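Minutes, project huddle
Topic: does the predicted pose make sense with 5-O-phosphono-beta-D-ribofuranosylamine bound?
PN asked that the exact inputs be recorded in the minutes so nobody has to dig through chat later. Recorded below.
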Amino acid sequence: MLNIGVLASGRGSNFQAIIDNIGTGYIKAKIVVLISDNANAYALERAKNHGIETLVLKPKDFPDKDSYYSRIAKELKSRDAGLVVMAGFMRVAGSALIREFPNKIINIHPALLPSFPGLHGQKQAVDYGVKISGCTVHFVDEGVDTGPVIIQAAVPVYDNDTEESLSERILKQEHKIFPFAIKLFSEGRLSVHGRKVIINSEREGAAIINPPLV
Ligand code: GRF
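Predicted holo structure (tokens), as shared on screen:
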């Protein structure tokens, strides 16, 4: 069975969606550790509620970025993690982590990449005036939200939307496509060919446009 290590910085609603989908058996995997850079992250409470080991590692306690991400990689390796999930981890992963887990780190971003990478993807979409935004699950590479796209969900943007209202609508889709992507990974149904991620699934077309309810 796949061992998953999760990195989160904040409230952890995506982390909860993953926990819930493991609980129902939709994803067959085990979360072996939650690592947070923020001792006040609500994600830590969620982990404790579900008996998941937690670890707080703060960048300021390390001399540099390399040693910080080497330590994270070491903790994940020692728990035999086969997948690293960045669930609202508000940092750009360092190369010391990425090279230890090639094509084994995934992230969720609240916009349709390559549009609106970086922070506040939802605000960027509202400010730009796009009519459709959404969310993207992608493999993590050294750039900011630049890795190969696994799955996306589109969400309408309405004239009276604010950052908050759009974020709420996008979040509902995040909670569907993130577990779905993890399920596909855990079943060995994702293969990466350059920038393209091929989903080996008879439902692939339908799933990408309308992620199945989980
Ligand atoms: C989500 O919008 C996610 O897309 C972004 O950060 C937010 C995290 O929310 N990367 P949560 O902590 O999972 O509730």
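Observations noted during the meeting:
- The longest helix spans residues 163-186.
- The domain at 1-101 is CATH 3.40.50.170 (Rossmann fold).
No decisions taken; revisit at the next huddle.
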